Amino acid sequence: MMKHNKGFTLIELMIVIAIIGIIAMFAIPSYQNSQRKAQISEGEAALIAAQSQIEKYRLTARKSYDDITLALAKVDSTIKYSNKNIYTINYTKATAADKTRGNKYTLTATATGSWINKSDEGCLLTLTSMGNITKAVCP
User: Fold this and answer.
1) What count of other Cβ atoms lies within 10 Å of the Cβ of residue 91?
2) What is the C-alpha to C-alpha distance for residues 113 and 111, in angstroms, rounded to an integer?
3) Consecutive 10-residue averages of pLDDT for the chain (139 residues)
4) Could you say which of 32, 40, 47, 57 has the lowest number of CB atoms within 10 Å?
5) DSSP state, residue 8
């Protein structure tokens, strides 16, 4: 009577480890790319929320755009994603030339940290008072 050993051979375990390694080789970069896209989307959403808060403050306080700051409008100057700072927001008053084209101010979000390359589009997000959002590389 022949006795059968139960369990896995070393070769079988090595094959499983190799398969897991190959899957991870493709899955990890895809996951990191989706996280980067989510953080850029979070930055865009935060800029739109900041714009809404600025407009609300301007109407309730009856101030001009030149008199508004992020602090007065109660807008946080940092954007967080999973408790990590990903962008800093700046409020810039429009120049005279911008005002003639209808733009009153510009909100700019600049990426912070190492989650994005400075050469990636989305490193610098810009939102004008007219609602135009642009993505650009960092200077």
Assistant:
1) 20
2) 7
3) 73 94 92 89 94 93 89 92 91 81 86 83 89 86
4) 32
5) -
